[in-house]
Batch of 2 targets.
Target 1
Amino acid sequence: MKLKLECYSVPDPFGHHHALLQKGDWLFVAISDGQHAGLGEASFSGDDTRCIARIRELFKKYIEGMVLSPDSLKEIGLVWADDQLDFLTATAVSGLDQALYDLLGKREGVPVWQLTMPNPVQDRVPVYVTINRALSDRTVADYLGVIEAARHQGFEAIKCAPFESVTVDGDQVAQSQSGRSVLHAIRAAYPDISVRIDFHQRFAADRFIQLLPELDSCLPCWYEEPCEMGPAYREIMNHTTVPIAGGERHHLDEDLMDLMDSGWVNVVMPDIIHVGGWTSLHKICEGAADYPAIEVSLHNPSGPVSTLASLHAAVISSTVTSIEIPFRVDAAVLPYQHLLEGGHFTVPQKPGWGITLDYIRGLA
């Protein structure tokens, strides 16, 4: 029978705070064969209505009559290349690509990673929690309370983004004072916690460099996208020993490989919901082996499908050093909670990604 497509839009449980770079609801793709349903995620394209329309168009053009097999999936990346992959289209492709791999894994009765390799390369993958979406009033007390809750769940690595007050045309040094106060408070309260700082490209490079001595004193794990991506990152590197991370909005695997080649970052951050899905993410992780000085950390502030799909890529790649997940106080509701141990993911063993359509329908 022909494959069938459904799309599910689920309100982001964290809301759409102005401080968030990626805003929108969770958007899930389901491709079914009458017996199994494969799931993908296409959240945060910037326009869910247009993204759903693009998903339906691509499905009808390339997938509806497809004979799904390991060989046909190996060729799917070449099929996508026939279309102009702007950011929204790449996100649509990502959802469809993930769903096809999940469907094949469920048909075969094996986890998706096992479609590629017989054994995992990593038994435990480090996790850090992004707390940005779990904050309510974004005061110092709010930050410290959320971090304490994260530590209670066993996490010792977090990411925060306390610089939403910084504007393009403002006095960025003055505007960053509240964010710097947050960082000092975090470090004073939790001297041993690993802290990643996301700046969402809010700064001019020269203003950011001016702040580096104080920021460095907070002993961060990395600085993520302090300013617009470009050669200025090399100048920033000349003024700090803290690694620079970036690449979350790059939506082509060629762009991510070019970023690694540029020397602008120490940590590259592909996101499975924007880079073309499992096909491209696996290609990026494999290609990163040619850049041994660069870490691959999987960007993932999104929903449960992208989290599990990212994990399947990580366990068969020696280049992936960590995965981001959004922190949730009510962690028991997460379909991957059983895979979390002491701030690490263990290897998923359920067929496909290990998540069911009933779970997504329950959210919707």
Target 2
Amino acid sequence: MTDMMSPTVSFVRPTVIEQKTPPFRTSGPLLWARENLFSSPLNMILTLLSIGAVWWVVPGMVQFMLIDAVWSATSSKDCLADVVKHPVGACWGFITARFGYLVYGQYPDAERWRVDLFFALEAFGIFWILWRKAPFKISGFAYFFLVFPVVGFILLSGMASIGLPTVQTHYWGGFLVTIVISTVGIVASLPIGILLALGRRSSMPIARLVSVVMIEFVRGVPLITILFMANVMFPLFVPEGWRPDSLLRVLVGVGFFSAAYMAEAVRGGLQAIPRGQYEAAQALGLGYWQMMIKIILPQALKIVIPNIVNNFIGLFKDTTLVAIVGIFDFLRTIQASLADPNWRSSQMPLAAYLFAALVYFIFCYGMARYAISVERRLATGNRH
């Protein structure tokens, strides 16, 4: 009876023990290094070789680009070792002295605020459509693809009726031209490429024939040929008063060239969609365009995000080819600056082209990283 009245013994701990960190050898940087860098003899050799290469290259680059660099100069003489009293690295003074020309070309100084406003409006539109939590996303796409091109053209070209002096396109140059050409190519290539891809898969013979001829003809010739035809050959076949501006001809050529490659990327995504998706959309009573816009294209574009971004990156880099037809893009303005007698020196080209490489790398790497984040968010890969 005494045993039955004794209090019940509980083996449940009334308080929670504070969580302990895992052992150092089974977590943290040491585990990551062991699993990713030293997981096998081959990985160990490659890791050591990579560390040696970085140790051999990076200190010299830092010494050349930062420590021994000359940051202020008015001519190439200011970047001589006898003047600065130390070994001379990159002459960034060349970039700072010619920065206005590299960005604006020969755009009038008093009107360069229009170029700055153009850059700001484009950055705002890109931020609006790329920011995941941005409100009114449909309005953002309408702004970037419809409103911004018109406003940007008026802003850069000018309109006397609203108090903006006209600036001819032959005064445009530098980074402005690079951004204009790449933006027009990107904005035009996606919708035109989608239409060409749909036309190539259409059951209508005329639409399919026109799309196939357009895609195969453009993809069958290099971009330089398109640019020469647009800028040199086209004016020979039209009356004198009907000849469009040289930059406009280049923009049209670049737009169609990039649209042809975009069409093949989109067509690959359309072919990857199972037939059941089409049949299910038709069973719901959706028309052709409703089926494409609401069901098929969202899935197809999600699949080909890497190819789309790859086309955008290639287009941004291919803008340098317009220099061959006399358009002063960013790289062409660098070459013209190097021809200035005040900046003739053996170390000038290295600093100039290094700066150009950094600019192109920043933009292309930014597009690639954003595409990777979109892929991860949409889970476009076959990950398990």
